[in-house]
Amino acid sequence: MFEENRVKRVIDESRRQLLKTVSLGVALIPFAGLPLRSAIAADLPLVTADDPTAKALQYVSDASKASGAKPGSKCANCSNYQGAAGSAQGGCTLFPGNAVNATGWCSSWTAKT
Ligand code: SF4
Description:
The protein is 36% helix and 5% strand. By secondary structure, the chain is mainly alpha-helical. Strands 1-2 form a two-stranded antiparallel ribbon.
């Protein structure tokens, strides 16, 4: 009886440890590719002024030259910007396949929260 209880405790402890390990692994899956994705997006070609989406959204590479931009608004502080903090350029969810300047701006600018 004593031995049976001891084995049961060992099995329970092993099961708890396995569940903790699996839970942590599952919780970290969404973050696994973030640095890589940011690095890849930064290496993408910069969006050009003749890009149809850029034209439609009035994208400019220098926010100070944008008419209608809120003071201080720029890609770096937009919720769609995917570049790392302090990066010169990075991806934008609205321009897949291209990078935007951190100092850029477009009419879809939305404050990062
Ligand atoms: S959506 Fe945001 S990050 Fe993308 S180009 Fe416009 S201002 Fe820049």
